[in-house]
Amino acid sequence: MYTAIRHFLATWTRESAGTARVMAALTDASLEQRVAEGHRSLGELAWHVVVSQREILGKTGLTWDAPSKRDPAPSRAAAIHSAYVDAAKALATVVDEQWDDATLQVCDAIYGREWPRGLTLTVMLHHEIHHRGQMTVLMRQAGLKVPGVYGPSADEEEVGAG
Prior knowledge:
Layout: H1 5-24, H2 42-57, H3 77-98, E1 107-110, E2 113-116, H4 117-141, H5 154-160
Antiparallel strand pairs: 1-2
Helix pairs in contact: 1-3, 1-4, 2-3, 2-4
């Protein structure tokens, strides 16, 4: 659980950059890739990551201009990537401007539980990391090269080998 805004922002800057790299590697054709019928497509998963920032943190009363789950998913990979980059940047700005370290101890009713806002930031971040990992599996199934997030990916090492 975060107890200092600066700690969240440092982590968010690093993690959202990794998610942006994954989103940037998507292609329009890859958006339809599914692991199995009845599961989210890669495009649906990517859009879920975009709108979940506002969905989860909106339950704290935090407001900012970002796509919501009511907004239709773009059909173009570049538009999803752009929406993600804009939303991630706006999220960092709004947390930095509207909250302080004491705010992270304030509790909100979220998904039937009382969560301190520092925990809500942690859950939102872990939710994104979880879905980013799912996206990389679907990307491989779609034949895309997966960018590194915590160091070079196998795809990047293959390019460098030689």
